[in-house]
Write a structure and sequence with these properties.
By secondary structure, the chain is of the alpha+beta class. 28% of the residues lie in helices and 9% in strands.
């Protein structure tokens, strides 16, 4: 799990760096789960529980078109320099994408 890797790197660098940890994902369903809303089947509940143990990580939404981690699944002719570099807005928290309002729907 990515959160385990992040936690291990943080632990290794803790004495050198004092930084906030931020993770980005485009899946609003997972963001909803990470907020601790709802009851889930055991598989999902176990995964979400492990992630939530790392309370020092902030989770943020990234729009699909700006998700550089998703570029590998696109066709080669769609890849750009975006693959090599982080989104331009990443270093400036004022430019971070706004998180969508995530609420439970009436759909089942």
């Amino acid at each position: 799990m990515a959160v385990n890797v992040l936690a291990n790197v943080r632990r290794a660098l803790d004495r050198f760096l004092d930084v906030d940890l931020h993770c980005w994902l485009e899946n609003t369903v997972v963001l909803y789960w990470l907020q601790g809303n709802g009851q889930y089947k055991q598989f999902v509940q176990n995964r979400i529980g492990k992630i939530q143990q790392h309370r020092n990580i902030s989770w943020h939404y990234v729009p699909t078109k700006e998700n550089t981690a998703d570029l590998g699944s696109r066709e080669a002719n769609q890849l750009t320099d975006q693959w090599k570099f982080a989104p331009q807005w990443l270093p400036d928290t004022d430019l971070w994408p706004e998180s969508p309002v995530i609420e439970r729907t009436s759909e089942t």
